[in-house]
Amino acid sequence: MQASTAAAFTPAVRVVIDDLCKELTRRTRRTVTADYGQTDCDQFHDAALCAETGLLASFVAGPGVPVGFVILGPDGVPVVEGAALGPAVRAARTAALRAHRRKTRKT
């Protein structure tokens, strides 16, 4: 983990995202983890919520995000843009559960 990623996702935010991962793990019966990263230009930071079935949703922070986070679905399409942490978590939860249902129906 690089320092700039830590600045975008503070320890308090990471606790909330980790709690969301635990909830999603319980609800999907698949281990869900947050993979933190950033773009090569070091401007955008993300926390990808992943399970063994693949990417479920992502939190993105960076320039052009007026408040908090953008939540992306597994297809990279924004679900919510410029959301504070609470609404972002709710949107990520919904997107992740929908993605999980779609992916497990196919198998």
CA radius of gyration is: 13 Å
Query: Helices and strands: which structural class?
Result: alpha+beta
Uncertain stretches: 1-6
Integer average pLDDT: 89
Helical residue percent?
Answer: 40-55%
Cross-sheet strand order for the largest sheet? 1-2-3-4-5
Query: Roughly how many Å apart are the termini?
Result: 33 Å
Main sheet summary: 5 strands, antiparallel
**What's the overall geometry?**
globular
Describe, in plain words, how this protein is organized in 3D.
With 107 residues, this protein is an alpha+beta fold. Helices cover 43% and strands 29% of the residues. The chain is built from 3 helices and 5 strands, in the order ααβββββα. Strands 1-2-3-4-5 form a 5-stranded antiparallel sheet. Strand 3 and strand 4 (69-72) form a beta hairpin. The longest helix has 22 residues, at 85-106. The N and C termini lie far apart (33 Å).
Secondary-structure topology with pairs:
Blueprint: H1 3-8, H2 11-28, E1 33-38, E2 45-51, E3 54-61, E4 69-72, E5 78-83, H3 85-106
Antiparallel strand pairs: 1-2, 2-3, 3-4, 4-5
Helix pairs in contact: 2-3
